[in-house]
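Quick illustration for those who missed Monday's session on complexes.
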Amino acid sequence: MAVPLSQMWTVARYVLGKKLRRVQRYPVVLMLEPLFRCNLACAGCGKIQYPGEILKRQLSLEECLRAVDECGAPIVSIPGGEPLLHPDIDRIVEGIVARRKYVYLCTNAILLKRELDRFMPSKYLTFSIHIDGEREEHDQAVCREGVYDVAVEATRAAIERGFRVTTNTTLFNTADPERVREMFDTLTDLGVEGMMVSPGYPYAKAPDQEHFLHRNETVGLFRRIFSTTKRRWRFNQSPLFLEFLKGNWHLECTPWGNPTYNIFGWQKPCYLLQEGYCETFQELLDTTDWDSYGCASGNPRCTDCMVHSGYEPTAVSETFGSLRGLMRTARLVLFGARPTQANGAVEGGSNGSHHKPPAAAALVELDSRAPATRLGGRN
Ligand code: SF4
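Prediction with iron/sulfur cluster bound:
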């Protein structure tokens, strides 16, 4: 199982509590960005294009912990920039762990091996290592040779020292399904607890604008990747989110489920778009026009987005907050997902209406004819 039972139980109890109290919008994962600066300059990144004076700034320990308390989400993800460049990152993590929140520290792992002594293994702390492919693909994605080997070595070292280690992979239209499956094998052999995959978001500021996936391309790619599956692969993400990426399950974006806090404040409406900032989390909830976002809204900036930060909280809420979602998840966990048909060219995509996108609808049909074979692990 890729996520420990104690973590699953914490999240399930939290979501059920919100549902019972009929809370309409609640956070599941806080995206805490303590800084934007990084020791890499990846072509698909939309976070490091700020001017130098912004890149020099960072949240203080107190600001980070205040945001964690204010938000109340049971999980805190620390992306960046590169969080290990923050001089107080160990104290930030320690403070969150002391609050019994589950922390995912996202890192490119260049500094990880050197910095491991600053952290204590805990069930509340996971290093989420950025790996975008096998050696050649990863080094190309991060625009620097040799980074893959450093990341793999650091991953091994962290696992040996007893830390929880997962990986996060962002895919673009250059991804080769066969090579992605090879990467799943490699990471599984390394002994990571779970893997997370997501399509990249078409950031307007990213240097590389050619290789972002459109919605129907994303569904086609994930169907090709999961046309063959292995029991031993473990995914650190909701089974319903993976089904969504394959076009087998309809989800709508719930951006309030993954709120972002950084040096500017609480970002409107999500981790990916910047439509202003709020001083408090409550202000973010109360003043954002949530109906203007998500694929169903017809907002062109959301049309092609299937990114985990928008849709994973929806998947989690459906899993623990609806009988249908729970039954489907239970079936996927117990019997595995069906391998998808490999014909990746899917016509349709989102039409921006309030109905299920045609690509997803067509693919549910395709899937119901696919043979039932078990996909390994939690998914
Ligand atoms: S669909 Fe994507 S870009 Fe739009 S609000 Fe949701 S997460 Fe943000």
